[in-house]
Design goal:
The protein has 306 residues and is α/β, with parallel strands linked by helices. The protein has two domains: 7-214, Alpha-Beta Complex (Spore Coat Polysaccharide Biosynthesis Protein SpsA, Chain A); 226-301, no CATH class. The chain contains twelve helices and eleven strands. The chain has helices at 21-29, 49-59, 75-85, 107-117, 165-177, 179-182, 188-198, 226-238, 241-252, 259-262, 269-276, 286-301, and strands at 7-14, 35-42, 63-65, 93-97, 102-103, 122-125, 127-130, 136-139, 162-164, 203-206, 211-214. It has a seven-stranded mixed β-sheet, with helices on both faces. It has a four-stranded mixed β-sheet with strand order 5-11-7-8. Helix 11 runs antiparallel to helix 12 (286-301). The longest helix is centred in the last third of the chain and has 16 residues, at 286-301. The protein is globular and about 60 Å long.
């Protein structure tokens, strides 16, 4: 008698990924104790990704390539398209996947187990970043969640996310209602985490890594490690991008009317001062709390309105 396994829809956004996508798909299709269907949405590519994926899907019934939908211009809109267009009705869980990672064989089994035993609605995990030269580094995002972290950061890499069908259906409905405004969001994983937390859904961040997170020159958002990464992230704050995303996401998830959020959401200098003293409730990791505090004050000293 065949044991019924949880059914998982894996949403994979691809773009010029022919160099890595086969290894990733193999790691997804070899997942233990789950029934997987992979849906691939491809941003128009120049390396033959579309043709390769079509041929691969023809030989693997668990892989479905969505019809061409034009250019997305980034992974975020591609993932939003996947959430919008994939029918979740026959699935128990929804997972996100990048094209260039390598999943541990029990990634989905552990995620499903955590959601069920901990009675939560979503799962993410730490990852092991790895580079072509063999170097590896544990990316630790599993610090305790705090009151407002979801307005300022994601729950770790989106490629580790696994959502219950209940949460996925609610997320899809909200996205459809705000589709045009949603296109301004640059990081789908940040928005999805913010949506879940703002609606009272429970999220578990697993301290054990569930995958190898490939690092290369074309990563849209790579490992947050080292001085160069710190400088790059500071530039996104200085040029206003990061504060702009905070505003957009706060509005989309309905937190812009919260009395406390309204005291700092315009990010004028007095509001930045006030926000700096709430750093402990805005980021999870201790060093990020400190960085957040000083960034607020640097912006004040520079006379910047974010």
């Amino acid at each position: 008698m065949r044991i019924k396994h949880p059914r998982v829809a894996v949403l994979l956004a691809a773009y010029n990924g022919i160099q890595w996508i086969e290894e990733q798909l193999t790691s997804i299709l070899e997942q233990s104790a789950v029934d997987v269907t992979v849906y691939i949405s491809i941003d128009p590519s120049t390396d033959g990704t579309e043709e390769w994926c079509a041929a691969y899907a023809a030989e693997h019934r668990q892989v479905v390539v969505l019809p061409d939908a034009g250019s997305f211009g980034g992974a975020s809109r591609n993932f939003f398209r996947l959430i919008r267009d994939v029918d979740f009705v026959s699935f128990d869980f929804i997972a996100f996947a990048d094209q260039d990672d390598i999943w541990h064989m029990d990634k989905l089994q552990r995620a499903v187990g955590a959601i069920e035993t901990r009675q939560v609605d979503a799962y993410s995990s730490n990852v092991t970043a790895f580079w072509p030269n063999g170097r590896t580094y544990l990316l630790d995002k599993a610090q305790p969640q705090v009151q407002w972290d979801y307005l300022f950061e994601a729950a770790g890499p989106g490629c580790t996310y696994v959502l219950s069908k209940k949460l996925a259906d609610s997320l899809k409905a909200a996205m459809l209602e705000s589709w045009q405004h949603l296109q301004k969001v640059s990081l789908h994983d940040w928005y999805c985490y913010a949506f879940a937390r703002s609606r009272g859904y429970h999220w578990y961040i697993d301290p054990l890594p569930s995958m190898h997170y490939r690092q290369h020159q074309r990563n849209q958002m790579g490992a947050n490690k080292g001085l160069s990464s710190l400088i790059a992230r500071y530039k996104t704050i200085q040029d206003g991008w990061w504060f702009s995303q905070v505003r957009i996401i706060a509005c989309l998830v309905g937190r812009d009317t919260d009395p406390l959020v309204r005291t700092w959401l315009k990010f004028h200098y007095r509001q930045l001062i006030k926000l700096s003293f709430s750093a402990s409730q805005c980021r999870r990791r201790a060093r990020d709390k400190i960085y957040f505090f000083f960034i607020c004050w640097i912006m004040v000293v520079m006379g910047c309105n974010a």
